[in-house]
Amino acid sequence: MTLRRPYTYCTLLFLAIMGITLVIKGISSWLIVWAVVYLILLVLGASKIQWNFFTQSLHKGNHKNWVALTFDDGPAAATEKILDFLRAHQVPATFFSIGARAAQHPELVKRWDSEGHLVGNHSYHHGFHFDWQSAQRMQQELQQTNEQIAAIIGKTPKLFRPPYGITNPNLAKAIARSGMHSIGWSIRSYDTTAKTSEQLLARILNKMQGGDIILLHDSMEITARILPELITAIRNKGYEIVRLDKLLDIPPYE
Ligand SMILES: [Zn+2]
Hints:
The protein is of the alpha/beta class. Helix content is 48%, strand content 13%. It folds into two domains: 6-47; 57-248, Glycoside hydrolase/deacetylase (TIM Barrel, Alpha-Beta Barrel), CATH 3.20.20. The strands form two sheets. Strands 2, 3, 4, 7, 8 and 9 form a six-stranded parallel beta sheet that branches. A three-stranded parallel beta sheet has the order 1-6-5, with no helix packed on it. Helix 6 (135-153) crosses helix 7 (169-178) and helix 8 (197-205) packs across helix 9 (221-236). The chain starts with 5 loop residues before the first helix and ends in a 6-residue tail after the last helix. Residues 72-73, 122, 126, 163 line the site of zinc ion.
């Protein structure tokens, strides 16, 4: 059975309101008003993964003393530096990999796995047009990435993070057909646009709570730079850094 998402109810409500307005007022400017409201809701629902508007994503764990670090877009410029630091300080993490980059740097994908980190799927191309594709094409990208990762580490990911955190009905279908878990976050660091280390650290640490999933990018030098201070601060607050499979209590691979 398909789970009804807010998108379904929102669309049914929109159609009902349009119908009632038509009956009461006939063709009127109210129809345009409702259509604009509906469109705004769709855009917000697509961009706010926490709303679970089109598909159910996992954003947070229940354990009050655990948090998880997640790195998107690698293998990339800062992956090696981040891995060296995580190894030295015994910190497990989750890396959501772009399939095409995994194909270019299999040695780093191997390191992710052999050093105790999780490898997740973050689409094959992470193209700007990703969300405009058909469900079938998206599903192929998910599968291509899974096959790429499986060819390197012998494990097929079950965790998928939508590129840009954007979801829509086609992606919802692709995720469901792939049998994967959609993974969001509860803390977006905005490390891709951060100007200073202080700003970036504050964005993460000021609102941190147990169960948080922190979104970072191993494509960013600034992320590698703040990592020592970030990990020390997280530990000083009394949290343990765990992998996503432990935080969410789900199997990470098929
Ligand atoms: Zn990304």
